[in-house]
Amino acid sequence: MPAHLVQPGTNITDSIFDFNKAIIDATHDIAVAYKPNLAFYECHGLEGIKAFEMTVRYIRSNYPEIFIIADAKRGDIGNTSKMYAKAFFDTWNTDAVTVAPYMGKDSVSPFLEYPGKWVVLLALTSNDGASDFQWYGAHDGGGWKNTDPLFWQVIQKSKTWATQDNMMYVVGATKTEYLEKIRTTIPDHFLLVPGIGAQGGSLEEVAKYGMNSSCGLLVNNSREVLYAGKGEDFAQESRKIAIIKCQQPMEALLRANQLI
Amino acid sequence: MPAHLVQPGTNITDSIFDFNKAIIDATHDIAVAYKPNLAFYECHGLEGIKAFEMTVRYIRSNYPEIFIIADAKRGDIGNTSKMYAKAFFDTWNTDAVTVAPYMGKDSVSPFLEYPGKWVVLLALTSNDGASDFQWYGAHDGGGWKNTDPLFWQVIQKSKTWATQDNMMYVVGATKTEYLEKIRTTIPDHFLLVPGIGAQGGSLEEVAKYGMNSSCGLLVNNSREVLYAGKGEDFAQESRKIAIIKCQQPMEALLRANQLI
């Protein structure tokens, strides 16, 4: 956080909201979505969650065309997922929520019952730990030779629970070598692609293997954009990085694929 | 909720907290742990989460011997799980949090860095959807003949990340046929066992296959106890059900196994 936003005496709700508001005001015309990460609000307790609520409301009121994804990685037995769905789609009114698939269909279905809202299901994530279980079942340990890895099973099963109009998948930008194969089973679904920027993924690679005839990609860059500057002009620094690292390369890729 | 707690004009924070307080006051001497489920607070937004905070604080202040498990099913990339760990162990000061394993080691490890705090990792859950992915890898579809199911892999890998003093596992009471086998690989870990009561699991079966030399079981009963009564005396009704369905049978089982 820039020092001037966390002066002694400033409450944490204001610090976070002022930070978010500045970044949003500086980037709304070059962003299609914002993806607030709940952990970074919950760690501050009520004051943090208040900043989350204010941020969502601010985007809704001022930039109603922007898609809001609650990055929350929720998922529990049916009667509990129903309450999480209520929290994110009703109470907080985000457009989408990231959901973890481990508990299966009844942990995902309640999120699918809200018209116009989206589940973003974890498939192949961008972190190191993705190799611990998401590749389970592929006995050669990643080469996909004999049997399918778990994440493939997650996609195969879950795509029957929903449509491409209310489900998308997380596929990490650090795993582009598998995007091409993933596109053979879900050619039309949108993919939420984290891992560009701080995690080292390449936008060109993601587009090469993951872009479809309606783009089909929501490419996320969090830390590299958010923490681009530390001074009074931090939001303009964020805008600069967002343009250089995301908007311009994406525009070029969309043009190259004749999508704009 | 009993009608007298949700009179028009009562705010939701007070309704939830008054309900929880009454149940806690009526059951603290026959409970070893409480397991608030975050979804049921989050669905009410800030007011709900305020009730969660007040509830945890109330237990801590009045019944410091009680173990508090935040049932939150969190888990994300390392830098994010670190913030969830801060939320639950630092800000909200619960003793344990339920964690989903899908994203692997770096999504679990940050929770293990708090001395005296516990991860309760999902292994084999009690819901129908457990069969969708938790059995993946066992190609005969549940019989465990040729290869190990995913949940077994989750236990095998994750038990090397932690010790029996900071990790326990969720194993549903509706899956007791597998408890015996699970005890062959984690004989000493505590298991959190949901699914008794509303979900149909049997405490006797759970104890038969899952109890170890220090008990090793935290058996949870949520809905059957919480919603035992709807009148002014709801908390006493909850106490009665908790005694009949949980405390007395558990005491008998502990005696039968010479643990008390």
Write structural notes for this entry.
The structure is a homodimer of 260-residue chains. In chain A, 44% of the residues lie in helices and 12% in strands. Chain A is α/β, with parallel strands linked by helices. Chain A has a seven-stranded parallel β-sheet with strand order 1-2-3-4-5-6-7. The relative contact order of chain A is 0.10.
Please describe the structure with a list of short key phrases separated by commas or semicolons.
homodimer; 260 residues; alpha/beta; 7-stranded parallel β-sheet; 11 helices; 12% strand
Uncertain runs of chain A? none
Q: Would you count the extended β strands of chain A for me?
A: 7
In DSSP terms (H or I, runs of 4 or more residues), the helix count of chain A works out at 11
Helix content of chain A: 40-55%
Rg of Cα set of chain A = 19 Å
Please indicate the percent range of residues of chain A in DSSP E strands (runs of 2 or more).
5-15%
Strand order of the largest sheet of chain A: 1-2-3-4-5-6-7
> The biggest beta sheet of chain A, please?
7 strands, parallel
Oligomer: homodimer
Separation, N- and C-terminal Cα atoms of chain A? 36 Å
What's the pLDDT, averaged over the residues of chain A? 94
Q: What would the principal axes of the Cα set say about the shape of chain A?
A: globular
Largest interface: A-B, 56 and 56 residues
Secondary-structure-based class of chain A equals alpha/beta
Taken in chain order, the helices and strands of chain A follow as HEHHEHEHEHHEHEHEHH
